């Protein structure tokens, strides 16, 4: 195998090793991505399952709460239709019992219909019954509570009962609920359906928000109710315990197309999490009379749903795998490099002269045989120069082998620089060198090479001379042994005739 073939094989082997370990690294990266993806998918799936359970639980709780509220309101409306406000103490006992059992209820109220002509009589009766001055008033935005106009032929629905009783509750007594537009809308809707209806949000005296559930208390055969039953529900009590502490949740409770009754959020998560993970949505409904309450819950999946510990373990394991694969690849490449250098060293030792660096006799013969076969196929000529240094032995004997070796190195350098790139020089042994001149047409081509060689030898700083003989294929011989023998004879003929001379093989045949 030639040096070029060995280098090509080394590059191929290096590429093969790098390819194998690159494949292992790629497989590790793919496994890492798949593992990370699975952990993230599993975390998202578990988050979705937990979210669906939570949303279902909220829907169940609120459905049950509103069902209870409707039942309570139906019972209170039936109580008013049967007993009315003839016995306020009985009504107070009934409502207190309900409030103690259901703490999410904020207040009971009852409103009674009176005509404009009955306002004065009603106020006197309420003053006697409650032992305080009660006036029928209407509500005007921006002005507050104002006296009703008894001269207009209207019906009023002042509040006649409040439980629990506190200062704010006392202020409500006598308030015409039909003067509040959103309450009047709820009254009309409840009257048309005969079922409970819900008002828009109102603000309580303590600043908290609430809404009213209202239902007419109507006797069979009546078209206009004499009384309305109302329960007030505080939103904070309704949503208490419904929202988790986990970040990223939003909960809204909307009635019809109105503004949400409830709109609460937990702590927001980062914009990075919003970009990386999906947002979950649950929309369910609760029937309230003929309308529906919409429960909308959203959950932005975040890192809290992902098992970060497992991700960290996977990342560390992948780094360890990458480290070991890289180290094994590095050791493998270093071992291959050492092997290649050893092979190169053996190749150099087997095919090149260790002193001059020129091809040795073995490699030259192999190379010459290959070139000779090619030239024979192509019908071309080649020449072989046989060079012997003159007076080398006395220099070696008198000045020592170290000087002789230096002289041989200089001669090898001169010969290498004198020949063409396609030609090859070889040290045959001792002070003898052989040069293959490839692709020559005639002896003139050879003489030009020899002339350049002689000039460089003669012009070198070290005093050198050489005897050169040459032979040509196919003019002088057909095989390597013959050509080398004929060139050798020509060289000895030149040495005997005149040192530093050149003799063609045919010059002495």
Layout of helices and strands, plus pairs?
Layout: H1 3-82, H2 88-101, E1 105-112, E2 114-115, H3 119-130, E3 137-140, E4 144-147, E5 155-156, E6 159-163, H4 167-172, H5 181-193, E7 197-198, E8 202-203, E9 209-217, E10 227-234, H6 235-239, E11 249-255, E12 262-265, H7 271-276, E13 279-288, E14 291-300, H8 308-351, H9 361-378, E15 381-389, H10 392-399, H11 401-418, E16 424-429, E17 432-440, H12 443-458, E18 466-473, H13 480-497, E19 502-504
Parallel strand pairs: 18-19
Antiparallel strand pairs: 1-6, 1-10, 2-5, 3-4, 7-9, 8-9, 9-10, 11-12, 11-14, 13-14, 15-17, 15-18, 16-17
Helix pairs in contact: 1-8, 10-11, 11-12
Q: Which stretches are poorly predicted, pLDDT < 50 over at least 5 residues?
A: 502-509
- Main beta sheet, described? 6 strands, antiparallel
Please give the domain count.
3
**Rough outline:** rod-shaped
N/C terminus separation: 39 Å
Strand segment count: 19
**Number of discrete helical segments:** 13
CATH superfamily of the largest domain: CHASE domain
**CATH architecture annotation name of the largest domain:** 2-Layer Sandwich
Estimate percent helicity. Answer: 40-55%
Please report which band the strand proportion falls in: under 5%, 5-15%, 15-25%, 25-35%, 35-45% or over 45%: 15-25%
Q: Look at the structure and give the CATH class of the largest domain.
A: Alpha Beta
Overall radius of gyration: 56 Å
Structural class: alpha+beta
The average pLDDT score comes to 85
CATH topology of the largest domain: Beta-Lactamase
